[in-house]
Design a protein that fits this description.
five-stranded parallel β-sheet, Phosphatase 2c, domain 1, alpha/beta, 15 strands
């Protein structure tokens, strides 16, 4: 039996020689400090001892005692709400009515008088096994509750650092923008960001950190901070990814990585320059209804290898055209039959929604994904960013 090295037992009995008999029988364990006994002569004294010693694990109680008997004591113990506290009742041979009443009132086990101390020790050890199991279960519960609290805090922090005030730039008439992250139960590492680099350039990013939980959330925060700091240095998208990758490789002690798509939209001309570090290729929604995937070379994720180079690609948005960025929580959303939502389904929806404002577009995709998944558990964050270029 795996147990704590120290057990405190409350012995409740009005017989004057009981204390000496117990100390004699368990003297070795008492000497080794494996056990300690506290004594009371009736139920009233027992309740006082329980208030003095909050770490009493087990009660060994006679049934017939003055002032407060063992059955009444059992009633009082039920009010203490201490599920790990177990009681072994002691009664005269043949007193089965009281034993049955004691068991109905919550006693864990019983022994008969005159006490066979070998039998008593076996009964105590069996009871302590149950106490240890309850302790361990409570400890695991507390640990899980602590982990869940930390995850909830991490999720709140993760969500709080993402920009979510819309319209994002009410003084800018050249574009409309919307973004959203529908977090899964577990903390993930998705993020999006958008910011004005100067009066003419709008920076846009979407990313997905490897893994889940608090490490992913922390790496997400670091990645976003580094990416934005480099982007505001007026670097081209590929230069920004190169520098961010080198920064992350220097700080990456857990060999984590992040996929990133980063683009700069010139809000005067509609020119869209971009670079991709292993992320899902976004889509341009043309005025003709064509949905064009923004292909770029499948280049390495950030944080994997220092000195990696990234390619620069350029497209042009005409007034009224949009582009849609997303994470794999959209395309890899899974229903109960383990079918994936998929890029084909996404492209089909985008073709019917090319003229929608960014907010409507994102909400429509989220609803379609949720309808597809139905009641299956969401396993990943669903994150998207959409921009419609309106022209200078």
């Amino acid at each position: 039996m795996e147990s704590d090295p120290f057990i405190r037992i409350l012995a409740v009995d009005d017989e004057p020689d009981m204390e000496e008999l117990i100390r004699q029988q368990f003297r070795r364990k008492i000497r080794k400090q494996e056990m300690e006994f506290v004594f009371a002569q009736n139920g009233v004294e027992a309740l006082l001892r329980l208030s003095e010693y909050e770490d009493i694990d087990l009660i060994l109680s006679d049934i017939n005692m003055p002032e407060m008997d063992g059955l009444t004591l059992l009633n009082e113990l039920s009010e203490l709400k201490r599920p790990s506290l177990k009681t072994i009742m002691v009664s005269a041979y043949g007193d089965m009515d009281n034993i049955r009443t004691a068991m109905n009132r919550g006693a864990f086990d019983f022994v008969m008088k005159p006490i066979n101390f070998e039998d008593l020790e076996i009964t105590i050890n069996k009871t302590l096994e149950q106490i240890v199991q309850i302790r361990n279960a409570r400890k695991e519960h507390d640990q899980l509750a602590s982990i869940q609290y930390d995850l909830n805090v991490a999720r709140e922090i993760q969500t709080a650092i993402l920009p979510k005030d819309f319209p994002a730039f009410p003084d800018k008439s050249e574009f409309d923008l919307y973004a959203a992250m529908n977090a899964a139960k577990s903390v993930g590492g998705d993020f999006y960001d958008f910011f004005m680099i100067d009066d003419d350039k709008l920076g846009l990013a979407i990313a997905d950190v490897s893994g889940k939980g608090i490490p992913a959330a922390l790496f997400m925060a670091v990645s976003r901070t580094m990416l934005k700091a480099n982007a505001l240095g007026d670097l081209t998208p590929n230069e920004c990814l190169q520098r961010t990758n080198d920064n992350l490789c220097l700080e990456n002690v857990n060999t984590m990585f992040v996929t990133v798509f980063y683009a700069i939209l010139n809000i005067r001309t509609g020119e869209l320059s971009f670079a991709n570090a292993g992320h899902n290729a976004p889509y341009i929604l043309r005025n003709s209804g064509e949905v064009q995937q923004m292909k770029s070379k499948g280049e390495l994720v950030l944080g994997a290898m220092e000195g990696t180079n990234y390619s620069l690609s350029v497209e042009t948005l005409n007034p009224g055209e949009s582009f849609y960025l997303y994470t794999d929580g959209v395309s890899e959303a899974m229903n109960r039959d383990f079918d994936l939502y998929g890029e084909d389904r996404l492209e089909k929806l985008l073709k019917t929604s090319y003229a929608d404002p960014p907010r409507d577009l994102i909400m429509k995709v989220v609803k379609d994904v949720n309808d597809f998944v139905d009641d299956a558990e969401q396993s990943d964050d669903i994150t998207a960013l959409a921009v419609k270029y309106l022209g200078a």
